[in-house]
């Protein structure tokens, strides 16, 4: 049993929805501080919240702020995170107690957002892309803590797959070993963020929010603990050409190597460089896929609440 209640600051609208067992969707904040430039990061975060609300669920953006685990942020708090950008501490599981006790500003990764969501009793979460097994992990040992969290924590993550800055094949193997199902929402191919097809299949395709909610219920009723990945491809009209993305990723990876960047800096560096190399196109794609994931997560949360 955890004793997390004194550490949580749950926004009133989120607390009310949880008390009445209404649909809530968790949202992460590393995507705001480290995943997109200002001011598009703030604009997108607010639009994502509106997309969740429009589908009948309550959004809860997570962060660590003023010595509290924040379950739900207001617009001023989202602005604060977005403006501070890379000055905000990127928090995964490891970082939570330190940043909390120091009173510093922390943004939550997928792993940390799952932890906060689970503490608050939220089981659906929408984001852009997951962390995973990095290319060259056989020697770097760089495997995102997101994958370990999915192995243990009962939160379903709607995402557009993982960027091919990662080794998607090895990421799939890791998830299989740890019993994390990868579901395709209306798709058989696992999406790869900017593109609709990573070249890998999902484990199971499900075509409705109700079917996915039923899967989550069965998994957790059976105490098969851990998360579920719901891959939701970027809408066709916003997908990017494979060649453009592949070239940008190859260049960003070479720069990462040349500069000897590792640890928690790797993913933000790669995200930033890919966005810079591809210019505004990739940012537009990024925004659209996050909005699309928010809608699907809200639909599943509503179905699960019924
Ligand atoms: N991938 C993206 N966008 C992101 C991230 C990953 O396409 O914003 C962020 C998420 O917060 C994810 C984190 O949880 O990076 C993973 O970081 P790491 O690889 O250091 O675990
Ligand atoms: Mn890493």
Brief summary:
The protein is 48% helix and 14% strand.
Describe this structure in words.
The protein is an alpha/beta fold and 306 residues long. The protein has a single domain (5-305), classed as Indigoidine synthase fold, CATH 3.40.1790.10. The protein contains 13 helices and 11 strands. Strand 5, helix 5 (96-102) and strand 6 (106-108) form a beta-alpha-beta unit. Helix 3 (40-54) runs antiparallel to helix 4, helix 6 (110-120) packs parallel to helix 8 and helix 12 (266-278) crosses helix 13. It is globular, with a radius of gyration of 18 Å. The protein starts with 7 loop residues before the first strand and ends with a helix. The model has no long low-confidence stretch (mean pLDDT 97). Bound molecules: pseudouridine-5'-monophosphate and manganese (II) ion (MN). Pseudouridine-5'-monophosphate (PSU) binds at residues 28, 30-31, 35, 92, 109-110, 128-129, 131, 144-146, 163, 193, 264, 267, 271.
Task: Record the SSE blueprint.
Layout: E1 8-10, H1 12-19, E2 24-27, H2 30-33, H3 40-54, E3 58-65, E4 68-71, H4 75-84, E5 89-91, H5 96-102, E6 106-108, H6 110-120, E7 124-126, H7 137-140, H8 145-152, E8 156-159, H9 168-177, E9 182-185, E10 204-206, H10 209-221, E11 228-231, H11 242-259, H12 266-278, H13 280-305
Parallel strand pairs: 1-4, 2-3, 2-7, 5-6, 7-8, 8-11, 9-10, 9-11
Antiparallel strand pairs: 3-4, 3-6
Helix pairs in contact: 3-4, 3-13, 6-8, 10-13, 11-12, 12-13
Residues 28, 30-31, 35, 92, 109-110, 128-129, 131, 144-146, 163, 193, 264, 267, 271 line the site of pseudouridine-5'-monophosphate.
């Amino acid at each position: 049993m955890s004793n997390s209640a004194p550490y949580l600051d749950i926004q009133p609208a989120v607390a009310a929805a949880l008390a009445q067992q209404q649909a809530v969707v968790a949202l992460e904040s590393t995507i705001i501080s480290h995943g997109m430039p200002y001011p598009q990061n703030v604009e997108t975060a607010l639009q994502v919240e509106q997309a969740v609300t429009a589908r009948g669920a309550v959004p809860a953006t997570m962060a660590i702020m003023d010595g509290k685990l924040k379950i739900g942020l207001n617009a001023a708090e989202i602005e604060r995170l977005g403006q501070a950008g890379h000055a905000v501490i990127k928090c995964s599981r490891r970082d939570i107690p330190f940043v909390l006790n120091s009173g510093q500003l922390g943004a939550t990764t997928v792993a940390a957002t799952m932890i906060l969501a689970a503490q608050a009793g939220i089981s659906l979460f929408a984001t852009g892309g997951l962390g995973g097994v990095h290319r060259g992990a056989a020697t770097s040992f760089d495997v995102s803590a997101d994958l370990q969290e999915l192995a243990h924590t009962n939160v379903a993550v709607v995402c557009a797959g993982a960027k091919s800055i990662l080794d998607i094949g090895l990421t799939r193997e890791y998830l299989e070993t740890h019993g994390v199902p990868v579901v395709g929402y209306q798709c058989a191919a696992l999406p790869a963020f900017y593109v609709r097809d990573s070249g890998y299949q999902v484990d199971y395709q499900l075509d409705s929010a109700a079917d996915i909610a039923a899967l989550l219920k069965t998994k957790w009723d059976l105490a098969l603990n851990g998360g579920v990945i719901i891959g939701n491809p970027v809408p066709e009209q916003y997908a990017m050409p494979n060649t453009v993305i592949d070239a940008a990723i190859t260049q960003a990876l070479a720069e990462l190597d040349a500069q000897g960047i590792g640890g928690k800096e790797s993913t933000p560096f790669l995200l930033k460089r890919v966005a810079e190399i591809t210019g505004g196109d990739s940012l537009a794609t990024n925004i659209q896929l996050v909005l699309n994931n928010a809608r699907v997560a809200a639909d599943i949360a509503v179905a699960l609440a019924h």
